[in-house]
Amino acid sequence: MTSVLDQLKQWTTVVADTGDFKSIDQYGPQDATTNPTLILDATKNPRYDYLIDSAIKYAKGKVSSNEKAIELAADKLLVNFGFEILKTIPGRISVEVDAKLSFDTEGTIIKARHLIDLFEEIGVDKSRVMIKIASTWEGIQAAKILEKEGIKCNMTLLFSFVQAVACAEAGVTLISPYAGRILDWHIKNVKKTYKSNEDPGVMSVTKIYNYYKKFGYKTIVMGASFRNIGQIEELAGCDYLTISTKLLNQLQCSHKKIERKLSPNTAHNYLEQKITYDENSFKWNLNEDPMATEKLTEGIRSFAKDGRTLMLMLKQRLNKEDTIITEKISENIDLGDKTSKPFKLFGRQTEFMVV
């Protein structure tokens, strides 16, 4: 009998939500998504040490300042993971800009261009990369500019209809409404359990999907952050769904029959009127939604924290290498010889004069 995963693929593009590219291939996803938390988790596995070492080596060869080297190494590490993941999928990889840029339009644009440059440097065309940006007003405006440059954007940390409308109006490639985190908030604050068909996260994604299809927006709706396969089954037919490997495995092992729930053919029955937001109305309406406001700021803080932890890990690795190099320099200098001694540093022949 056909698995639920294979049934789902009839109507929905399945995306793997992981940084652990060794676990992706068995599920046959089209695309893959990463975020700072997923990359941080993956770096704890020793089998990915070579990607960290490669990123540090690259950064050291480009800049002399340790601070700048750490930031460059972090960017390169994202690209290294993305490059390896692209070997296992036919489609695109989503990589995320630093969460601390969530309220900085120009900073986001600069970082996005830089990440694309790093991919193109190793032969990956920008058509295979999507840049993940937080769905703040500033982030959406950055995405609007980047899309005009041909850089595809995946708008993340999306919890509300107002964010979805603004993203569609900006012409972004894809949005990632977080069904699971919406459910988390309601369970915690409303003190209620929900059946899958009345799940507030599922209902949010469904509303956005129907609105987009009714009014002809080309932006892809990709449901994200699922807590159980019931949520996924209720969104069968959504454009894309990005799913953790744990839930992909459950879908692959289940063989019950499921039905398509979302379709452009039924979206015309949706009653919502077309609306638009400027900056003031966007921020006010977002402010009036306590769930969306709390989850957006919480998500930004969480990703920023994991980003800082990743940078700290890179700093420790970089400093450890510097210590090893210093010790090696000492070993190669004969204190009784006052002539210069050649020594290879970061692949370059260097002379140290003993004085």
Q: What's the CATH architecture?
A: Alpha-Beta Barrel
SSE topology string: HEEHHHEHEHEHEHHEHEHHHHEE
The largest sheet is: 8 strands, parallel, barrel
Low-confidence stretches: 333-355
**Which strand order does the major sheet show?**
1-2-3-4-5-6-7-8
Which structural class do the helices and strands define?
alpha/beta
- Tally of individual domains: 1
Count of DSSP-assigned helices: 14
Distance between the termini: 78 Å
| CATH class designation | Alpha Beta
CATH topology: TIM Barrel
Mean pLDDT: 91
> Strand share of the residues?
5-15%
**Which percent range fits the helix content?**
40-55%
The H-level CATH homologous superfamily, spelled out, is: Aldolase class I
The tally of strands reads 10
Outline, from the CA principal axes?
globular
Function: Catalyzes the rate-limiting step of the non-oxidative phase in the pentose phosphate pathway. Catalyzes the reversible conversion of sedheptulose-7-phosphate and D-glyceraldehyde 3-phosphate into erythrose-4-phosphate and beta-D-fructose 6-phosphate.
Pfam family, one: TAL_FSA
EC number: 2.2.1.2
Family: Belongs to the transaldolase family. Type 1 subfamily.
Could you describe the 3D structure shown?
The protein has 355 residues and is α/β, with parallel strands linked by helices. The protein has one domain: TIM Barrel. Helices cover 52% and strands 14% of the residues. It contains 14 helices and ten strands. The strands form two sheets. An eight-stranded parallel β-barrel has the order 1-2-3-4-5-6-7-8, surrounded by seven helices. Helix 2 packs parallel to helix 14, helix 3 crosses helix 4 and helix 8 crosses helix 9. The longest helix has 42 residues. The chain is globular, with a radius of gyration of 23 Å. The termini are far apart. The C terminus is likely disordered.
